[in-house]
Write a structure and sequence with these properties.
By secondary structure, this protein is an alpha+beta fold. It has helices at 2-5, 23-28, 95-104, 115-129, 141-162; strands at 8-12, 18-22, 38-43, 51-57, 65-74, 79-85. The longest helix is centred in the last third of the chain and has 22 residues, at 141-162. The radius of gyration is 18 Å and the shape is globular.
Length: 163
C-alpha cells in the first residue's frame, strides 16, 4: 500500500541527521540505509480519495499472501496508482495500466467504468507484472494461476475504489 500511496521514508542518521527517500527507492535498492541509519517514520500523503487493498492467501487460512493489490485513486491529479505485491521481491507498479485506466475515468462525473474496462485493467496489470515468456513457451500452470489471481484482485480493487 505504501508503494501505491507513493509514501516517503524519513531516515534518521547519526548525530540527528535526517534525510527523506521514497519508499519505492528503498524497496528497489536504488537507495540503501547507511551505517547507523534507521527508518524514523513514514510520511504518507494525505489523500481524500478511495484506497483499496486486497490480498489472496492459501486455502489453509491466514498467512503470507500469494498476491496482493493496492489501488489508490488520486482525483486531484486525475490518476490511478496500483501496486502489486507478494509476487516479486518488491512491489510492482504497472505504470502503463495506471495511465490507461485513468484516461478512461470521468473524473468530473460519477467515475464509474464498464465491467469490460475493469476486466481489461485487471488483465493489463497481470500481464505487466507476469509477462508472457519469449518464444512459443507457455507459462507453467502455477504461474498462469497466479496471473489470473492478480487480474481478479486488480479488477475487484479498482471496482471497489470507484464505487
Amino acid at each position: 500500500m505504501l508503494a501505491a500511496l507513493e509514501a516517503d521514508l524519513v531516515i534518521a542518521g547519526p548525530g540527528g541527521a535526517a534525510r527523506e527517500i521514497p519508499v519505492s527507492h528503498l524497496l528497489a535498492g536504488r537507495e540503501l540505509l547507511g551505517p547507523a541509519e534507521l527508518v524514523g517514520y513514514v510520511r504518507v500523503p494525505l489523500l481524500h480519495a478511495p484506497q483499496v487493498f486486497l490480498k489472496a492467501t492459501g486455502r489453509t487460512g491466514p498467512g503470507r499472501a500469494t498476491a496482493s493489490v493496492a489501488v489508490v485513486l488520486d482525483p486531484a491529479r486525475r490518476g490511478v496508482r496500483c501496486a502489486v505485491g507478494a509476487i516479486a521481491p518488491m512491489p510492482l507498479r504497472p505504470l502503463e495500466a495506471e495511465r490507461w485506466i485513468a484516461s478512461l475515468i470521468d473524473w468530473d462525473g460519477e467515475r464509474g467504468l464498464a465491467p469490460e474496462a475493469l476486466a481489461a485493467f485487471g488483465e493489463y496489470v497481470a500481464a505487466a507484472c507476469i509477462p508472457d515468456q519469449e518464444g512459443d513457451e507457455q507459462l507453467p500452470p502455477a504461474v498462469l494461476h497466479l496471473r489470473r489471481v492478480v487480474a481478479a484482485l486488480a479488477r475487484r480493487a479498482l471496482g471497489r475504489a470507484l464505487s
